[in-house]
Fold this protein.
Amino acid sequence: MKIYTGRGDEGQTDLRDMSRVSKASPRIEAYGTVDEVNALVGRIRPTGHDDVDDHLREIQNHLHVVQADFANPDPDEGDPVVREEHVEQLEDWIDAYDDELEPLESFILPGGSDSGARLHHARTVCRRAERRAVALEADEDINDTAVTYLNRLSDALFVLGRVVNQRDGVPEESPTY
């Protein structure tokens, strides 16, 4: 596989169905931002917590599915698409990790340990990816479950940030008003 082809030099790129679109299209913006989330999640590992690292690796694979889903305007049977089971898996992880934590009583400042702060950063970019997906969905038919997945993923990254900080002995800080 050749890394460069020159096909994008004019500001166009191929979708999964080989149709050409502007690199500034909402579809490219959506899956490009998901790619950014994926790269940030890759920067978080290793956290020093095997269970978290295993889940982050699985999340990275899910994010590739989200990208493929958004890059395909007309999926065929057998094409990669985000399914409800992906969302349910995140919810199971959120519930399990949340059991480790004290209930939130106020907002918290994003930060903490290196891994905790990176998880909070990934959460904010995931929220942006979700906004890009919602903007795409306003104009084009996309898989609603992929949008739901991004919403749930930002929740999971928040909880993971809290868990990692707690396990690393870094207390949460609340904002002052």
Remarks:
- The first strand starts at residue 12 and ends at 14.
- The two ends are 54 Å apart (CA to CA).
- DSSP finds five helices and two strands in the chain.
- The mean pLDDT is 95.
